[in-house]
Amino acid sequence: MADHGSHTRPGISRARLAHIAAWSIELPGEEADRACAGIVEKTYARGTCICPKNTILESWTGVVTGLIKVGTVSPEGRGITFTGVPAGGWFGEGTVLKNEPRRYDIVALRDTRMAFMDRATFMWLVENSVAFNHFLVRQLNERLGHFMALLEYDRLLDATPRLARCIASLFNPVLYPGAGNHLEITQEELGLLSGMTRQVANQSLKALEKDGVVVLEYGGVTVIDLERLRSYGA
């Protein structure tokens, strides 16, 4: 693991857990305490590869603040982005369950703080917590639908609809709870996540704003009509 982050002590408070992990609200006291003891937070500078592809990262990962990109590089050297994960999102549960190397790179698109739950704690919750398992079923089901939609729009849609679906995916209330209707994200970051240049992303954003589905603000986007954004171009 390319770990260039600054460390904090293992273990966090119950209040901190509730702040960084919406799923923890469902956990009974003992289970929440167990989760707290197994989490460490680290910070990473923009551009840091938090975890390279084919690295075994024996932790379940969450984004506390910032934004990360999940992607890879093709044999021809072309960068491919699978998705972005904003603050509040937890991911990588499938890899931890299978105890296999990550099949993608995790890169910080801006200064980012991450939470890592060690695999032993994660597996204890899987084996002992009904509430945690209910959460995982919802999470995995939602993620499957999320990636099917990303595959569809990447292959079938032009730039503006593709960007619209990319933005909408970052407002998924199950995968990224607590996002509200505003996301701090730059046009450059949106371009990286949707596989287009900053210039094309800028043109597409202006088209979406003109159509009344988003409002562009300095360093961010506010969604006006999420349902239209999700089906834009259909």
From TrEMBL:
The keyword Transcription regulation applies. InterPro entries: cNMP-bd_dom, cNMP-bd_dom_sf, Env_Response_Regulators, HTH_CRP, RmlC-like_jellyroll, WH-like_DNA-bd_sf, WH_DNA-bd_sf. PROSITE patterns: CNMP_BINDING_3 (PS50042), HTH_CRP_2 (PS51063). SUPFAM superfamilies: cAMP-binding domain-like (SSF51206), Winged helix' DNA-binding domain (SSF46785). CDD domains: CAP_ED. Residues 39-143 form the Cyclic nucleotide-binding domain. This is Crp/Fnr family transcriptional regulator. It comes from Trinickia symbiotica.
